[in-house]
Structures are given as C-alpha cells and as structure tokens.
Amino acid sequence: MNPTLTNIAHPHDRFLKELLSYPEQAGTLLREHLPESVAEFLSAKLPKLVPDSFVDKALREHLSDRLFEMETVSGRAAFLYVLIEHKSIPDGKIGWQLLRYMVEFLKEWEKKRTDWDRLPAIVPFVFYHGESEWKIPNEFLHLVDCEESWRPYLLNFQFPVLDLGAISDRKLSRDHRLQARLLAMKYATRRAHQLAIRERLVEALKNAPEDLHPVIHYLISVYIYDEQTLRGIIRAVKPEEEQKMMSQFAQDIRRVARQEALQEGIRQGMQQGRQEGRQEGLLEGEAKGEAKGEAKGEAKLLLRQLSRRFRPLPNGVSERIYGADPNTIESWADRVLDAKSLDEVFSEN
C-alpha cells in the first residue's frame, strides 16, 4: 500500500484512492462509466494523476476527490475531476461542491499559465456508493432559484454519476481488480446484505488475488464480518497467507470489535447512569454509567472472542471476566488471537 495514503482517515477514502492510484484501473473505471460521448474521445494513453485535492477539511469525512489529466484523440489535454461521495444518503448540494472545486483547480492552473488563450476542459464525475438510491438531478442549475426563461443565460453544467447500487454486481466492471474492489465498496454501506454476498466476494477475489490484502483490510474496517468469516475468505483465496494475514490484522480486528462492543456497553451504561442520576445527580450518574459501560463492553468483547476460539467455554469463565479489573481484561484480550489454549490467555506469566 502506498505509504502516503495511510494519512487518509476515512477507510473508504483510503481504499478507493489507493485503487485510483493505479493508472490502468483508473483509466478503465473512467472509460467504463463516463458517458459515451466523453469516453469515445479519450485516447488510449493512461490517465496521469494530478496530486491535488480541493475538498474542504470540514467535508473530508464524507467527500474525497481525484483529478486526472488525459489526452483526447485529437491531442488536446483534458481533465477529469472525480468527486467521491461516501454518505449513505446523497448530498443535495453536490453540484455546488463540484463548481467550487473546479474553480479552485482553474485558479491554480491559471497561476502557472498567465498567457493562456483558452481554458482546459474539466469533466466532473461523481462516484457514489451510499445505501440510498441517487435521485438528485445531475446538473448545477438544479440548485439555482430562478425563472425558467432565465436558464439559457445562467451558468450550468451536467455531471455523470456512478451509483454502484444501481448496477448489478456482475456488471460493475470487466476488469477483475476493479470488479472485486467495487463489489466491496458497493456493500460497505449495505450492512444488512454483507453476510449474503460473502461468496460473491470470494469469487471476485479469486480472480484478483493480488488485491486480497487491501480488500481484507477494508472489510475489517467497514463490514460486520467476524474473525472466522475473514479467515474463511482468506483461506478460500490464498490459504497459504491465512496465518500471516490474520497475524498482521490482529490489532485492527481487536480495535474494530472493541469499538463496537464499547459503543454498545456505553449506550447501556449511559441508560443505567441516567436512572441512577435521578438520585445522585444527573452528570455524576452519566459519568459513572459511561465508565461502567466501557468496562462492560470490554468484558463482553473478550467473552465473545474467547467463545469463538475455544468453544465451549468451561463454567466460571464469564464470572471471572466480568469480575476482573479493566487492565486485566485488556491484558487477556491482547493474547486471544495468538494463544493456543484458554490457559495461555489467563496465564499470569
């Protein structure tokens, strides 16, 4: 994985930006999903990635972008601006974001070419993999409150939208690597369907085994798959890599599972704390409830991990875990994935 991409906080950003850093896959994605009237004029040369981003910091939680320079069949230089929308529901103001970012790019372009005669063409392209269907009109003027007769005199542009949810799984791409990655992204926001498409993911990854590592890393971050499911996918695609990859991802698996268990524990603890807070003060009760929730979440996570690795658990394990202090629970949790027996987990050495 490109080390410069590890600074991208959002897993969707990191995953897709890494994919689009490969010129072959980026070119295929654009040619397959741009309107034919645009794609037919692109030359066979690979797109050149322009290392700039124009998305505001405040919006980077759900928006990211990629800018490519491509050559047309007539030798002109054109730019393709890909804005990637990660929200589960489309952003109604996406046309405004596109306009702002394209203007920012042109301002930077003009600084280096003050003697220009004509501006370069920029084709905006929206990549969307949210759960809800994209129903927003794909033109800027949709956002402008104006009289209908004014439309010919106002700024306007259209932008193609790639909505992964509107494409059948097997038609996401003819490129094997794109197919596997786009399939993973399509269901990243569709948690209710993630278990059902496991075999489809395995099939896609068998055709693109070189992408198994980044795809598994992505699944850990955004899918509901447990350790056994992840092991099964790796085993089906590259069985010789199972132990190595699971060891590499052990910390990530624990972190994600711990976050989910903590969130559930905190919710339960906050409810309990609010009830206690009626008698001892609301703020103090909520703080105690949150602390209890964190401890309960850690214990619940450890118990769930142990039951998957060493089932059936002997009597008394649950009581031992829920009765332990947070530091001891954390120490046990760190040993779960590498321990060969239950005794090794609880060892005092």
Automatic annotation (TrEMBL):
Domain DUF4351: 292-344
GO biological process: DNA recombination
Sequence ranges assigned to domain Transposase (putative) YhgA-like in this UniProt record: 11-208
GO molecular function, one term: double-stranded DNA endonuclease activity
Pfam families hit by this protein: DUF4351 (PF14261), Transposase_31 (PF04754)
Superkingdom of this protein's organism: Bacteria
Family that this chain belongs to: Belongs to the Rpn/YhgA-like nuclease family.
NCBIfam families given in the database record: T_den_put_tspse
Name the UniProt record assigns to this protein: Transposase (putative) YhgA-like domain-containing protein
Originating organism: Candidatus Kentrum sp. LFY
